Amino acid sequence: MKVQKQTGLFVLKLIILLAVAYVMLYPLIWMVVSSIRPEVEIFNPSARTGTFTLSHYVKGWAGPTGVSFTRYFINSFVLVFFIIIGNLVSCSLSAFAFSRLKFNGQKIMFAIMLGTMMLPYHVVLIPRFIMFNKLHWINTYLPLIVPKMLATDGFFIFLMVQFMRTIPIEFDKSAAIDGAGNFKIFTRIILPLSTPVLITTTIFSFIWNWNDFLSQLLYLAKPSILTVTLGLRLFLDVTGKSNWGALFAMSTVSLIPIFLVFITTQKYLAEGVTAGGMKG
Question: Which of 213, 173, 209, 200 lies closest to 189 in space, CA to CA?
């Protein structure tokens, strides 16, 4: 009886989990299926004939303004690459300073850094736009890349600080006895041991900036420099002539990089987020 009861509970939990998973995945499934349906059948269930087509992918990849999605994908990958490099370099250096060095005002500066995490992005949106406009950086990637080079993502600094604090300080002292300076300690000891949190930063930076819409919408307008998220927006027409089939097709394609990154790195993602707490 006990075994049967446990089996029944297991089956019940499995059914509930499958139901919840279906509800969560239904919008994604609907989008993928709609991307291969004829245009007239997407929002009209009564008109569905069971036929499928890949024409939306062909038309969508060609782009609505004459610029293909090949260009948009290249732009997105280039932009995200430099953002990742900026976050890894600047945030790791800042985290090393906060976690391993001693200097005047350290606690106050760390508190200010934490305070920036609580500041809504929209509060600084207009001042930043005015500043970048005066620098003539609009319609370039500089407003999106340069701030990342200056350690403006407090979340990543905090994440790295918490991880680096779990690394025994004796490693630093041993290296210092051998004549290593702070920069050598950082590059030869701290960085190699911080691989999990660096991978986590890379993953989050990729996902967040690949999906970013508002920042890219503010600073990018030329068709040749648009990213994937802005390219998808071009399929929508305020006059009501939106190309929904192509939009769903390219939206499906745009999810592939994120899906691949998540599937291949989820182990490192969990390790990087939880390692500090587990070691602490």
Answer: 173
